[in-house]
Design brief:
This is DNA-directed RNA polymerase subunit beta. About 75% of the residues lie in helices and about 0% in strands. With about 210 residues, the chain is mostly helical. The chain has one domain. Helix 5 runs antiparallel to helix 6, helix 7 crosses helix 10 and helix 9 packs antiparallel against helix 10. The longest helix has 29 residues. The chain starts with 12 loop residues before the first helix and ends in a 5-residue tail after the last helix.
Length: about 210
């Protein structure tokens, strides 16, 4: 499949959709890995700014469904699994930039690590800042240090998880249902951070496939 891509190119909706429809797990895995490798290799070889812009904004125009069908079922500690999590994180941030910013900002106030620095959002971080950060992280996947982009995304998740737990503690007595939702969200962010950190480590040793 890599031979089909002779120059850096955008995966338009039709190209994503062309790979959908198979239920064979082996075929699904094969397609996921081949498309992830082809896309990343070709764009990183010559990161045309216009193409990177379109890849970053792909889900704004086409939605997440095609990418989900292509990569969401991949092993979380694989290249397609990492790409899926970065795209999904950006989408989640954009869907609720204000709420995410509040949780992230709280996280920066309570977390005892350098994760806010690694993530790279300014302080204080409002909706515009976290949205811009999500774009910069995804852009870094295609034209920067791939492992650093994954580390930044993982740091963002850890900070936001800390914010979720802190707000959950505040809400526990008055709104236990909301507190439970935030605790569950914190666990998901923490798990995603662990997966992205592992992917970054594997990438640095040429072991992420």
């Amino acid at each position: 499949m890599p031979d089909r891509y002779h120059k850096p190119t955008l995966f338009p909706g039709g190209m994503f959709e062309a790979f959908l429809g198979g239920d064979d797990p082996a075929q699904i895995s094969k397609v996921a890995h081949e498309t992830a490798q082809a896309l990343l290799a070709r764009v990183r070889e010559d990161p045309d700014p216009e193409i990177v812009d379109r890849l970053v904004a792909y889900t704004d125009e086409h939605g997440i469904d095609a990418i989900a069908e292509l990569w969401a079922r991949s092993n979380p500690k694989s290249l397609p699994g990492a790409l899926w999590r970065i795209y999904l994180l950006r989408l989640l941030i954009r869907q609720d930039a204000e709420g995410t910013a509040l949780l992230y900002q709280r996280g920066t106030e309570v977390i005892a690590s350098i994760d806010p620095v690694v993530a790279g959002a300014p302080t204080p971080a409002g909706p515009g800042e976290v949205t811009e950060l999500a774009d910069r992280i995804l852009r870094g996947v295609f034209e920067g240090d791939f492992a650093v982009a994954l580390d930044r995304a993982a740091a963002f998740c850890r900070v936001t998880a800390a914010g979720c737990l802190s707000v959950a503690d505040d809400r526990d007595a008055l709104d236990p249902e909301r507190a439970s939702e935030l605790t569950t969200r914190a666990l998901r962010f923490t798990r995603t951070a662990e997966e992205l950190t592992t992917c970054a480590r594997l990438w640095r040793t040429d072991s992420l496939d």
